[in-house]
Amino acid sequence: MSILAIGSFLLGAVFGRFFSVWVLFPASALVLAVGYANFSISEFVVLLICLQVGYASGLALCLMPDLWRRDKSPHEPSRQADSAAPTSFLKARHH
Hints:
The protein is mainly α. It is built from four helices and no strands.
């Protein structure tokens, strides 16, 4: 059961990184189909919670990439005080 819970968490993290929240509905239906056939209701609930917590953690890691990589060079010139927004803010992010 713990292997399935860890797998469900990791699957949720991948879903949170690459898909919208709507992917949780078919994933939950899949867990329901597998869980209904093989597990008790408490084990099914654990798998669903692991899937949703994994989704939230994958989404959080996707939204906060600067916590993991700090590429800013100490020799980088400072911004002008009169600029409205940095150019990196205006560029489109591609996932």
